Amino acid sequence: MVSILILVYSSNTTRKTSPVYSTKSTPDVNFDYPVQDWNSNLTHSLNISKDNLNITDLVSNTTVQVKTDKKQTNLISIHMTDFQIYVKDSKGHCYEIINVLENNPEICQLNISSIKSVSCGAAHTLLLDEDGVVYSFGDGSRGQLGNGTTETSTNPDKIPALMGIDIKAISAGSWHSAVITSTDDLYTWGWNDKGQLGFPSKKNKHNHKEEEVVNILCTPHWLDIPEEEYINNICCGSQHTIALTGSGRIYGWGLNKYGQLGFNAESDFVDKPTELIFFREEELKIINIFARHWTTIILTE
């Protein structure tokens, strides 16, 4: 049996400090056609039906179909920032959907091939190719592109500090980024306002020396997880980060205002990797982890 445990966002003042249990069964979302993938941002939702892209304006509730040609087939996944839309096909090509706000969407291929995975933050995007090379582009105002600057980049560029390092997984939060190397090391960079990078935050300055405090990291920095040999998976929410280790333990850090880290804390955030011991105490085997915005989802066996 597969179970889902959700660390939920609550709109009231009561913070959820332990996972909420749910079974695999969830309400159906009905479409009039088979859907391969679905996603949404602030203004639009998008789904793939066979080789067609269907975009729905969430304000007017109208749907248009993106015209594709024979080269833009086998589309398999959708990735969205707050403002941009990207799709990936089975051959590793990545496309941007443009002119959406003008209600005249077009599909344009990015000049990178063999894309293995895509991860989108609020306004920046990470790409990982089959050779383990990471590209970043979009808003860089909080160092989330990892290129040593806080400038915006409209074209995907390799991250210099990661050149020569084989990367196997990427994840983009709203304004921070994280990757796992093939040797199971974890690197983070970007905004550390709530400790989402796992380094001392200025908001917690009373517990740290001033010289230790990190506000923004514009290049990837190695992050050590206490007493753990390696990181198996990483997921970034808006301002929090969740990691799954090789021994099956869950660690979290960053914003915990809405209970998204799943444990009690003295403040609304935690700026160092901290184990969520609930799963170890309950002897639950973790299958996968997911984090987005203010929510964390843990899939157990």
From TrEMBL:
InterPro entries referenced in this protein's UniProt entry, alphabetically: RCC1-like_dom (IPR058923), RCC1/BLIP-II (IPR009091), Reg_chr_condens (IPR000408), Signaling_Regulatory_Domain (IPR051625)
A Pfam match: WD40_RLD
Keyword Membrane in record: no
Domain of life: Eukaryota
Keyword line: Repeat
Keyword Repeat included in the entry's annotation: yes
Annotated RCC repeat ranges: 132-183, 184-247, 248-301
Domain RCC1-like: 110-289
This protein's name: DgyrCDS7799
Species in which this protein is naturally found: Dimorphilus gyrociliatus
